[in-house]
Amino acid sequence: MARGQEPTAPPDSARQGYGLSYWGTIPPPSDSSVAPAANRRMPLWEGVLVWPYRVVAFPFRVVADGIGATIAAVDESPFLRRIFSFQARALKVSPELNVGGLSGFGAGIAIQRDSLGGDDHQLRFRVSGSTQQDARATFGTRFPLGRNGRLTLGAGFRDHANTRFFGIGPAAGEQDESLYREVQTWVGAIYGHRLTDHLVLAGALEFTSSYADEPRGDFAPPLSERFADSLPPGWGITTTGFLSGLTVEHDDTDGTARPNRGGRRIAHAAYLHSLQDEWASHWNFRLEAQQFTRLWFPGTVLALRGVLTWLEPVGDAPIPFQRLLNNNDPDLFRGFPDRRWRDNGILLLTAEYRWPMWAYGRADGAGVDAYVLTDVAQVFPELSAIRTDDFTLSYGGGLRLVSGNGFLLRLEYARSAEGGIWRLQSHQTFQFVRGLFHGRDAVPAR
Amino acid sequence: MRFRRARSVLVPAACAACVVAAVRAAPYLTDVPVVWHADDRRDIPQPTPRDPNVVASAVDATFFRPLGRLLNPTRLIRKFGTTLGGQPAHPAANVNALDEVPSSSWYTNRIGLFPLAPEQVARGPLAGGEPDMRGPLTVISAKTEGVTPGFNVRDRSGNRFVIKFDPPGYPGMTTAADVITGRILHAAGYNVPHDAIVRLRREQLTVGPDVRLTMGDGTRREMTDADLDSILTRVQRSPDGTWRALASRFLTGTDLGPFDWRGRRKDDPNDRVDHQDRRELRGFRMLAAWLCHYDTKQGNTLDMYVQEDGRRFVRHYFIDFASTLGAGALGPVPTACWEYSVDVGLSLGRGLALGLWQDPWRRIERPSGLEQIGRFQAEPFHPMAFRPIEPNAAYANFTDRDGYWAAKIISAFTDAHLAALVAEGQYHDPAAAWMVRTLAARRDQIARYFFERIPPLDFFRTDGSVIEFTDLGTLRGLYPVESTRYRYRIGDATPDGRITWRHGWIETADRTLAVREGSNEQGTGADAGFVAAELEVHRGARWSDAVRVFIAAESGRVVRVER
Questions:
Q1: Which residues of A are less than 8 Å from B353 in CB distance?
Q2: H helices within B471-515, ranges in order?
Q3: φ/ψ bin of B228: left (φ > 0), alpha (ψ from -120 to 50), beta (otherwise)
Q4: CA-to-CA separations, A159 to A136, A242, A446, B345, in angstroms, rounded
Q5: All structural domains of chain A with their residue ranges
Q6: Would you call A397 an interface residue with chain B, using a CB distance cutoff of 8 Å?
Q7: Which chain B positions have a beta carbon within 8 Å of A23's beta carbon?
Q8: Integer Cα distance of B413 and B180 in angstroms
């Protein structure tokens, strides 16, 4: 553009990319005003480096393309589409897999229907098996009863082919690890009544049966061999009983799988009436408190949990060893193998510091949190036996993956005086809500 | 026969060698007209439509491509070089001698180079592109599933439109964002469909014959009036009984599917520049940052095989601007524009930070009392902190020069332009005023960021005795004129780019440089062929980097600008 010549009038050609511009007059496109564009030539040094890289990377690129093609094929598969649309409308079908550990390779399937007859009437059936002959089949259904009530009915069978036993009490030695088979069956009902927005009162009635005998694997010596001189009470027999209990639960967490505030408080009392005179009927008491406290930023949370649970035998008869409390879901002593400790009572104090690593779209939606943890715990024969000398300490860290619908996967490593344990679990240590519907006792009362 | 065979190999090889030699021998400076239009609209046979799988594309873009870039040794070296002032990628391939983008089937120079009036900017791609609301709108297809249902209609003129609604709970938010962003991108130079806000009345909608609905289980059946009513009951109705909706006009031509942000469409002979090296696609990163245009996955691009002036070629479009200006197709997304959907790098960083660092997006709230505005704000905002829904190959090649080019366009939108554009979104006040203020503030932050890195001395003009230039920093109100000084030196340049300076730096407050007559031992400008001028600007702190401009001595034409 000549000096002093300013484009003032805004002609409409300007919207088409020609006319009087800040650079001067831009001609309209014509055969004489266009030029081909082409890729810029690569500098020599780049060529020297990039071609060997391309050769080396080629197989990986092929693999990546193959993965992409597989994803596309699966995503666009009419068969899978049909299954997923079937799931969306009728049944939710979810596979279950388990790899390693005392169960070996396990596989199963859970089928759930969320609106059977009524909108809030759910039905769930679950079956699984493993290479180490573990087996499980559970059935649950729950539906509203009245305006604030909810009735859950459930039944199940679980065969743990290889269950750990180290002895009873806080002094049980790591070197005494042994195995036994534990078979449980149950059928029962729980009625929960919402008293207020945060307060629920629940009553349960269950028939339970428990049996212990020789294990089916050879991971460790059988219990009958290791403890041949002093077999625990209950070995080799079936014990049955009726469990009736009451639970009061106060829950004012913020309702997500990544709670920032609030907590849960649970008080539970149950009575197991033994159907065999030689085995003790007993009370099971449980007090649990969970508290979530937001720290300096949203998402950075201190999660605290305290559990005190114990059994009180009625009469002089012993409680079968397989019904004693042990460190198993949901009362894990992380850093120790499941069922490492077993006795009449458990005291467990847990602290986790969590912070967000990834959030998919929303802060409280799907995402990943990192956390560090410490557990302090002990088992005890009676309340008066609780003492700090018997506390076990463990510490570690992990990742919590939360899906959009609240499903949670935890991968964690915890270390104790007895070594380290990696754990992959698909529910929360906190906010444990499984019950009869999901094929679990409402509260561990074995 | 043997000779023929040999000739069939040797002749092309010789030609290729000649071309290579010619390219190598091409002088750095030539006195030829600046290229303002790319030759990419030649008549071609119709390319094959693409239909890449959305999930596979996302996985590739999120994991495999970034990994490839991370391990690429040349990129690693360039990455280290950035600490010494280098750039993370080679320069864009499709720029002209003035470092501008020639108009093409991808891009048309508009507000960046032309002084458009606000009403021109606000008009959008197509004058009268809205549906004719005086007659019936016939539903020709529909989508009943999903959170935001919609349908396609034909107006009485036969034009077809996609009709979309705001997501439940966010009346007026997404439709406004879509229209405003579309108009801005069009004014900036990109190809977009013509979108407009319409108000539908039930009595003007009729279901056309043979409209089939696909149900959730895959079965299909004929659509009825009841289905239309069902769709409309799921979207918010205005107090006057109408439904506010977005009408997006169907693009003309044949749908070829999306373009990839990397590589080229192999069956399009006009597509000769790798997309990740196109300036307008690299620079789009800043437009997207400005507008918080989050969802720029390849599925939101579209190639159309069009016929214009007797030629058939591919024109490249951006479509679907629902996820912009803090809105989202399903409502505002808090992490939008701050991190990729799966942001491996940021996630690992946060893991190591132990929760002692807070994401900026967690501090952002929607402005109170403005229900049509999403999570869109002037603070916190940093142009380079913007991240789209997934890593983008063109954004990964973004350099400061690409950013400067984009900033130049973005800063060309005046407050009056923005007010006219935002008016097209039909916000209620004070949402409209708030949106104009926020867009202006983000615009200025982008411009400042890049004008600090590359001095905005531009649009050089000369009559042989003086060189005039524009200081976009002062012209666009980012820096005060009073505290701005310039220094320059003039020299003689040979065609291979060697410069002999005639004198040292001369300071001035004027934007006119005297091209002094005189010679030195190497000769005058006329002898050397070109005059070189080097400029720097001082705004109170330090002298900026230099901008160099070359002028052909004989024609007086600006033939090259270096930044």
A1: 355
A2: 472-475
A3: alpha
A4: 6, 20, 14, 44
A5: 64-438
A6: no
A7: 34, 98, 100, 113, 459, 558
A8: 13
pLDDT for A130: 87
Q: How many CB pairs under 8 A join A and B?
A: 213
In contact, A280 and A315? CB cutoff 8 Å = yes
Spatial CA neighbour of B322 closest among B432, B431, B235, B248: B248
Distance CA B510, CA A83 (A): 73
pLDDT of amino acid A87 = 58
Nearest chain A Cα distance for residue B454, angstroms: 19
- Residue B219 burial (10 A CB sphere; 0-12, 13-18, 19+): exposed
| 3 state SS of A107 | strand
Mutation site, B114, B119, B264, B405, interface A, largest A CB count within 10 A? B114
The token duo for B515 is: 């091209």
Mean pLDDT of all residues in B400-422: 96
A283: tokens are 């009370």
CA pair distance A352, A306, nearest whole angstrom = 12
d(CA B224, CA B230): 10
The fold of the A64-438 domain, in CATH, is Porin (2.40.160)
Name the 3-class secondary structure at A373: strand
Q: For residue A26, give the chain B residue with the closest CA.
A: B36
B262 within 8 A of B281, measured Cβ to Cβ: no
Per-residue model confidence (pLDDT) at position A298: 84
Q: How far is B243 from chain A (nearest CA, A)?
A: 28
Phi then psi for residue A92, to 5 deg, are -95, 120
Domains, chain B: 38-454 (no CATH), 457-562 (2.60.40.10)
**Angle formed at CA A286 by CA A281 and CA A292, multiple of 5 degrees:** 165
Share of chain A above pLDDT 90, in %: 39
Enumerate the residues of chain B whose CB falls inside 8 A of the CB of residue A360: 335, 341-342
Q: Say whether residue A66 is in contact with chain B using an 8 A CB cutoff.
A: no
Query: Which of A26, A46, A71 is nearest residue B74 as measured by Cβ atoms?
Result: A46
- Concatenating the DSSP letter of every residue in A6-69 gives ---S--GGGGGT-EEETTEEEPPP-TTTEE---PPPPPHHHHHHHHHHHHHHHHHHHHHHHHHH
Top pLDDT among B523 and A93 is at A93
Taking CB atoms and an 8 Å limit, are B40 and A357 in contact across chains? no
Residue with tokens 């300071």: B507
3-state SS record for B523-543: ECHHHHCEEEEEEEEECCCCE
Residue burial B527-542, b: 16+ Cβ < 10 Å; e: rest: ebbbbbbbbbbebeee
Q: Helix, strand or coil for residue B71?
A: helix
